[in-house]
Amino acid sequence: MARVVVDVMLKPEILDPQGQAVANALPRLGVTDVSSVRIGRRIEIEFAGEPDLDRAREIADKLLANPVIEDFSIKVEDDAKAEVA
Amino acid sequence: MRIGVVTFPGSLDDGDAARAVRLAGADAVRLWHGDPDLHNVDAVVLPGGFSYGDALRCGAIARFAPVMESLIDAARGGLPVLGICNGFQILCEAHLLPGALTRNQHLHFRNRDQWLRVEATNTAWTNTFQPEQEILIPVKNGEGCYVADQRTLDALEAEGRVVARYVRGNPNGSQRDIAAVTNEAGNVVGIMPHPEHAVETLTGPSLDGLGFFTSVLRALAGASAGAQHAGGHQ
Questions:
Q1: By its UniProt entry, which HAMAP family does this protein fall under (chain A) (predicted)?
Q2: How do the domains of chain A map onto residue ranges?
Q3: Most CB within 10 Å of its CB: which of A3, A20, A38, A51?
Q4: Residue of chain A nearest B89, judged by CA positions
Q5: Which pLDDT tens digit goes with each residue over B75-96?
Q6: Is A2-84 CATH 3.30.1280.10?
Q7: Chain A interface with B: residues with Cβ < 8 Å
Q8: Full-prediction pTM beyond 0.80?
Q9: Do A21 and B99 touch (CB under 8 A)?
């Protein structure tokens, strides 16, 4: 199975209220040494044949991420070779 | 005049939008997300709701609906388009408007009557308002926080493209209290609150929303008078 993993994260300058809500809840677990939490999205794309990074990048750029507020990175899951968009 | 109202899977306010169009004195033409034909409408409203269940991001899937391919071309050619709430999100995803709508900063869904100040009265959808006029229309969203980079926000302000701002309280954390923006040509407007819910005394907090729909009729009448005048020379 040829799987490409796309990680989508809000750009650093975009406020992440969900991440903040999680960070604010951590003291209730007794965790007090976390300064920041940011939440993103992991998308797994399975190609019928060989993993096509160019096609995956096109999918990520057009649909999976909104370039106005999000960055994405792409990697083939089998090897650790990652590239940042 | 024929004003199209698009229905996507998950649209909620298409019925109210069509009703507002009729109350303003135009024919409401129902358009379907899967049909690329715009059926010769003179303007289009993208209504509120949760198109495609807000999967991935609000408006991200709807932006690739067959009707949107035609609509994006038509909007770039000058067709007046008003995106309300989810419609605003779709217009941003389609890159017809700058910026994006993100999760309300306080994470709560906000549903209330909201005061706005209309700041741009030269768009196809706001020409019947007075500059700086304050209006009261309902806002109801979970992902209505308008964001864009500082340069884009500065450009919107410098070019007079902030159509309306929240006053007397910002319901969702939108940057610079922005509630509505327009494109460079002024034919495409996106607004987070719901003018179509403020068109009748029985159900709305005011009749202020009607102004958006009468504005587009005025803009179209002006355009058509201009076309007839130009045609008169032939």
A1: PurS
A2: 2-84
A3: A51
A4: A66
A5: 999 999 999 999 999 999 999 9
A6: yes
A7: 13-15, 17-18, 21, 63-64, 66, 68-69
A8: yes
A9: no
